[in-house]
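Database export, one record per block. Field names are fixed; values are copied verbatim from the stored entry.
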Amino acid sequence: MRKDTPAHALRSLVSRFLHPGASAVAKNTTGDKPLPVQSALLKKLGDLECKSTDIKSHYSADSRNILMQAMVPRGRPFESVICALSATGQKASYAVSDCIVDEKKQSATLIFSSHSKNGPGVVLSVLPSDRYYSGTARMALVVENAEDTSYQLAVSLLSFPEPLSISILPGTKKASLIAQLADQHQKEVIVRLPLESINKVPEALEQSFIMVHYSKDAIESMISSALKDVPNFTGFANAWGSRACEDSRVMNIILADVRKQHGYFLESRTAKNSVVARVATSLDCPFSEVNGRIDKKTEPDIAAEIRRLGVSAQVAGTIVASASASKQLCDALGASRQWLRQNGIRLVFVSEIVRHPHE
């Protein structure tokens, strides 16, 4: 930055640029050839999906400083936008000498100084646009144990006006009813297969578990029975199953059947030495894993966990999370819906995220 143009003077230029008066009308450089730093910032703003009409660029009245304003689409972590623009300035031989952030308004002003003695200062004001970033992060939420809740709570969850994937344990009293209700409410249904675990399983469900020593015919028969209990399914998941998910023979039988049913397999709790991913790849069976679990009990804690997982989705692009059905989850989803939208996080079905090995 020029020695005769301190940071506080550039801040005053920002105010005059955003609210120009008769004495602060700046020269419009739209028709002039932009400087390398302008070109670099304009290219990065384009990468951030700013339209040309979202960007203004002027020289200050004394022509010593370039003043820019950009309306950036919502949906990315605001910190990542600032970091990307800061790094772009550095590549164009400019350094950020000051950064003024208004977290409440999600706006910032970056003040760049040139490494060259005679280079003009650059003031870039970043404001949120009314539009949303097109590469919205995706979150698939798997709701478990809905068949163990009251009818009223199940309907409340299924009435949530966004995609949810409902994982249902066959053999339970309300399994078929919840599957039918989920289909009526246009929710995705997952058959939650009880697989043998290293740990002790619920005594009441022991007879319904697929054990590693069972024959191929027995395993296929149990899957067929589960499908009659949970109609309108889209995919499969494991309930428990740490031992079965480590057994290549068993998983070959299960995943071959999953593929035959045109479904996908979701490993809800990844076993330490799981072979699911390897076997699914060899059989060309779509699969995914649960990346996060919501174990909190209160509505505020669940809502905070949804936001935390949403941030992870913004970083990774996608996330599959699971939670147990409850009134608190229902309330937290309602409270989080607007936050998810404002931050560009779209709720989707698991089937929209599963990996297809051949792709």
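Remark 1: The chain has a mean pLDDT of 87.
Remark 2: The longest strand covers residues 121-132.
End of record.
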